[in-house]
């Protein structure tokens, strides 16, 4: 009884307001005056740090988020086992121009791409041939044989949504090595996927073609890509030395971390909201995607703080291994299907902890119309764009089970400065922008659990 009284004092039975406007106002007020999102992100990034799948950082993040959600008193908190690939960088990545008539030897800022095989300590040396795209590579045919292919396609600055420019330039990173290997290239260098010229190399996922040799593939900073390109135009026999130690190790057991508040009226209908807990092995994975994870936990925490009981079940999900395998998202969908769970919506925040401007979605016309019908409720919070198609990588595998898939859409202009680099640290995230994102997600979850979709 004492416990119950204490509970009631901690969580007074504040009831829902009269209408959606009032309740959304309560969500924003609570988040912007006493939210936990930012301090939780500080812990994840500063105390745990980066969290590549299979690493000790990822294991620590699993345990910490589990405890955090238990401490918040969510109804159910559990770990969902999933086997993940374990890639290890293995050592310092080196890229050097070795015979520049202008500069002699010159070291470039480089990072091996994820899932790549390294050169080992002996390294490799080769002539460099520059292309702007995979199409251009194919035109060269066997001219690239025995050479290092340098993919130097910039992100298109004319695209207003930076994710579009990223998507367009991404194939050179994700499948450039596989394509170059088919033609007999010995390695690839790729211009970092960033819309700024600076000295940060950006890592990221790449996939080999199993029928061809797994050649080393490293990213160089945009500044060094510009430099290499200009030196090549003056000196076509330029040689580059590359050294890296990447290695795919045996798979490891890891987990999706799940916290749930059961619906009071229609508990069978589930609304999942989440981000991916893993990150690359550089920086602190603050924007990508510590922000999304902390926002998702905050959505449920706000329900506890406000003393609200959702009509439908709401679930915070930290997916594991989005970056170099997507195993967590796939396993989550597989288990949901096996258990016969009914997801009505899945919401993902994996575009950085920046100022939210809308939600993108994939679903039936009636689902998307329902989402758009809430536009006026979001307008006071300057979340205005509910019309864009999209969703998210981790929720994608749920598609055939019928929920609407929704992505939080923050302002995209600065995301690719930080993405997959040493610069993606806690200090790069703005508290207010992060909290506005958490509040926008909570407001959307509230509308869906109340009205269905
Ligand atoms: Zn991400």
Provide structural commentary.
This protein has 453 residues and is of the alpha/beta class. It has two domains: 2-87 and 250-451, 3-Layer(aba) Sandwich (Aminopeptidase); 90-245, Glucose Oxidase, domain 1. It is built from 15 helices and 15 strands. It has helices at 2-10, 20-34, 37-48, 56-71, 134-140, 162-169, 171-174, 176-182, 222-234, 286-306, 327-339, 365-373, 375-378, 415-418, 431-451; strands spanning 76-88, 94-100, 104-108, 110-112, 124-131, 148-151, 187-191, 217-220, 239-243, 247-261, 266-276, 312-319, 342-348, 356-362, 404-410. The strands form two sheets. It has an eight-stranded mixed beta sheet, with helices on both faces. It has a seven-stranded mixed beta sheet with strand order 1-10-12-11-13-15-14, with helices on both faces. Helix 2 runs antiparallel to helix 15. The model is unreliable at 1-13 (pLDDT under 50). It binds zinc ion (ZN). The site of zinc ion has 5 residues, from helix 10. Zinc ion is lined by residues 276, 288-289, 322, 350.
């Amino acid at each position: 009884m004492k416990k119950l009284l204490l509970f009631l004092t901690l969580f007074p039975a504040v009831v829902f307001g009269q209408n959606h406007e009032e309740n959304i106002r309560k969500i924003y007020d609570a988040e912007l005056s006493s939210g936990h999102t930012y301090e939780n992100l500080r812990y994840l990034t500063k105390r745990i740090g980066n969290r590549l799948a299979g690493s000790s950082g990822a294991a620590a993040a699993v345990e910490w988020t589990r405890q955090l959600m238990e401490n918040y008193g969510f109804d159910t908190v559990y770990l969902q086992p999933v086997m993940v690939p374990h890639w290890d960088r293995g050592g310092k990545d080196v890229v050097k121009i070795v015979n520049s008539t202008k500069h002699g030897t010159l070291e470039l800022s480089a990072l091996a791409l994820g899932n790549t095989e390294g050169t080992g300590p002996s390294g490799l040396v080769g002539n460099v041939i520059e292309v702007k795209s995979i199409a251009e590579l194919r035109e060269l045919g066997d001219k690239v044989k025995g050479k290092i292919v340098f993919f130097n396609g910039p992100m298109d600055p004319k695209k207003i949504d930076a994710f579009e420019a990223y998507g367009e330039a991404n194939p050179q990173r994700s499948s450039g090595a596989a394509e170059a290997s088919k033609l007999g290239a010995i390695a690839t260098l790729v211009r970092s996927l960033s819309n700024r010229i600076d000295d940060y190399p950006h890592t990221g996922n790449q996939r080999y073609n199993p029928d061809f040799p797994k050649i080393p593939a490293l990213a160089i900073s945009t500044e060094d890509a510009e430099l290499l390109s200009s030196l090549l135009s003056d000196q076509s026999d330029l040689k580059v030395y590359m050294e890296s130690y990447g290695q795919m190790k045996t798979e490891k057991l890891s987990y999706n971390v799940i916290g749930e508040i059961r619906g009071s009226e229609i508990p069978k209908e589930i609304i999942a909201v989440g981000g991916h807990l893993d990150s690359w092995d550089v920086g602190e994975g603050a924007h990508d995607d510590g922000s999304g994870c902390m926002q998702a936990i905050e959505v449920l925490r706000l329900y506890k703080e406000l003393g609200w009981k959702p009509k439908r079940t709401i679930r915070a999900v930290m997916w594991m291994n989005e970056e170099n395998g997507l195993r967590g998202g796939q396993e989550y969908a597989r288990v949901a299907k096996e258990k016969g769970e009914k997801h009505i919506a899945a919401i993902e925040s994996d575009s950085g902890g920046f100022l939210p401007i809308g939600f993108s979605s994939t679903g039936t016309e009636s689902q998307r119309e329902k989402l758009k019908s809430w536009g006026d409720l979001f307008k006071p919070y300057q979340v205005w764009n509910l019309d864009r198609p999209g969703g998210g990588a981790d929720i994608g595998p749920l598609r055939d089970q019928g929920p609407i898939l929704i992505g939080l859409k923050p302002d995209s202009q600065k995301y690719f400065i930080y993405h997959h680099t040493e610069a993606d640290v806690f200090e790069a995230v703005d508290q207010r922008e992060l909290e506005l994102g958490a509040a926008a997600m909570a407001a959307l979850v509230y509308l869906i659990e109340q009205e269905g979709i």
